[in-house]
Automatic annotation (TrEMBL):
<keyword id="KW-0732">Signal</keyword>
<feature type="signal peptide">
    <location>
        <begin position="1"/>
        <end position="21"/>
    </location>
</feature>
<protein>
    <recommendedName>
        <fullName>DUF4232 domain-containing protein</fullName>
    </recommendedName>
</protein>
Length: 457
């Protein structure tokens, strides 16, 4: 009986799948055996610990972060990189990402190939990096790259589609002339459902969710898409989210031009390491006239100084006020219509054959009026008539014209004027004058009564 038990045990042992080491399965790269594969894994994991500590990636998933070889061919042929994870690159979705760690060949002998671990290739904010094929370790474990959703660790931040989930009301707005961000909802859930599964926070951090409305004026406003520009195009602003101990850039390619997204992130729990300090939405206007603005989340309280004009709405998409005007024959009266008004700090203007970005002086704002002519001759001469377009402030002073933008018409497409930050209305008119226009020659321009342009927004 004892012999029968022994025989059965030997048969069972022969049928079981054994744990293996690199030597047993023969990990190969380019057909050569990989030497000291366990040491490569350990050194890559030490390198990745710095990446985690600096917040370039966040822990996620249910397993500890470790480094794996990726099978790329028959038997145990592996990739020239180790893949470390599961992690989450801030700004991506809630699913797991992997950080590639290149391996450099330092020696090749008859016994195999000796490799050296290189610095991790951390994906850019909002960019994913995922291996193809099965992942293997020298201790015999095998896994797949898709680990689903598990526990979110410190520095986790995901940008997810807004599917209309219920959040608490919130109100926080920050804008410049190219980008406007509005927090309209906020929550502190224990669990957050995603398309990949339920997301929970690991011990020591808590989940936060905010609904963010995004409006990219730099993409939807044609003024910023004119060419050519003096020196360089206006640089896009850089949005970010401040949490205690960390600033997370919000990747531009994950944000809509006009729409809403959900930002799901973690913060240290009260009383824990790194706790304390407000959460804040940040907007950096970059370039020669840079500016940083911060508003607390979810209260919307302004943190620090910000131009008063940027605490106001930029203006409606359309409006319509008109003033009479005649060009040449006084009896042929047309009109010049103001079809849009925008208040801000920076506006594109035409200068010496190129566009440039005009910036308001401290304590002032820039008012842009866009025009459309009706019943006036159509000639290319708007640079001649720009100086006749007059804006008068409530105190009776004439606003300084900072610049204009021109098209193929008698009058400019837009005029830009310097106004007080708190201005609530101006009057607009066409001053009388004599100009020289193509095809028409020297003609008189006659305006009519000034019209009020409301700016109470």
């Amino acid at each position: 009986m004892r012999w029968l038990v022994l025989v059965l045990a030997l048969v069972a042992g022969g049928c079981a799948t054994p744990a293996f080491s690199a030597e047993q399965v023969g990990l190969t790269m380019g057909g050569s055996a990989v030497l000291d594969a366990p040491g490569l894994q350990a050194r890559a994991e030490a390198e990745l610990s710095y990446t985690l500590s600096f917040g370039y990636v966040a822990r996620t998933g249910t397993d500890a972060v470790s480094c794996w070889f990726a099978r790329t061919g028959p038997a145990f042929e592996v990739d020239t990189r180790l893949w470390c994870g599961p992690v989450q690159v801030p700004g991506t979705a809630a699913a797991t990402d992997w950080v590639p760690v290149p391996l450099k060949e330092v020696e090749r002998t008859g016994a195999g190939i000796r490799l050296e671990v290189q610095p991790p290739q951390v994906p850019a904010q909002g960019s994913r990096s995922t291996p193809v094929g099965k992942l293997v370790r020298t201790d015999g474990r095998v896994t797949t790259a898709d680990q689903g959703v598990g526990n979110a660790g410190p520095d986790f931040l995901a940008v997810l589609p807004d599917e209309g989930q219920a959040l608490d009301p919130a109100s926080a707005t920050v804008r410049d002339d190219q980008l406007e961000l509005q927090v309209t909802g906020y929550s502190s859930p224990a669990v957050w459902p995603t398309a990949e599964g339920d997301l929970r926070a690991e011990h020591g951090v808590a989940l936060r969710v905010l609904r963010l409305r995004v409006l990219r004026h730099g993409e939807t406003d044609l003024a910023f898409r004119q060419t050519p520009w003096h020196r360089w195009l206006p640089q896009p602003p850089e949005p970010a989210l401040d949490v205690p101990g960390r600033r997370h850039p919000l990747p531009a390619d994950r944000l809509p031009d006009d729409g809403t997204v959900l930002i799901v992130y973690t913060v240290p729990v009260a009383g824990g390491p790194g706790a304390g300090g407000p959460e804040a939405l940040v907007l950096n206007t970059v370039g020669a006239k840079s500016l940083e603005q911060r508003v607390a989340v979810p209260s919307g309280q302004v943190v620090g100084d910000a131009p008063a004009v940027l605490r106001r709405a930029p203006g409606p998409e359309t409006m319509s006020v008109s003033t009479p005007v005649s060009v040449g024959a006084p009896e042929q009266v047309g009109s010049l219509e103001v079809v849009r008004a925008r208040l801000g700090r920076q506006r594109p203007v035409w200068s010496e054959g190129q566009y440039e970005l005009a910036t308001a002086e401290p304590g002032t704002a820039l008012l842009e009026l866009r025009f459309r002519g009706h019943g006036v001759p159509t000639v290319v001469g708007s640079w001649q008539t720009a100086g006749l377009l007059t804006v008068v402030l409530p105190d009776g002073k004439v606003a300084r014209q900072v610049g204009a933008r021109y098209g193929g018409e008698t009058f400019p497409v837009a005029g830009v004027y310097e106004v007080p930050e708190d201005v609530r209305s101006v009057t607009f008119s066409v001053a009388p004058g004599t100009v020289t226009l193509p095809q028409l020659g020297t003609v008189a321009v006659t305006g009519g009564a000034a019209v009020e342009v409301p700016l109470d927004f």
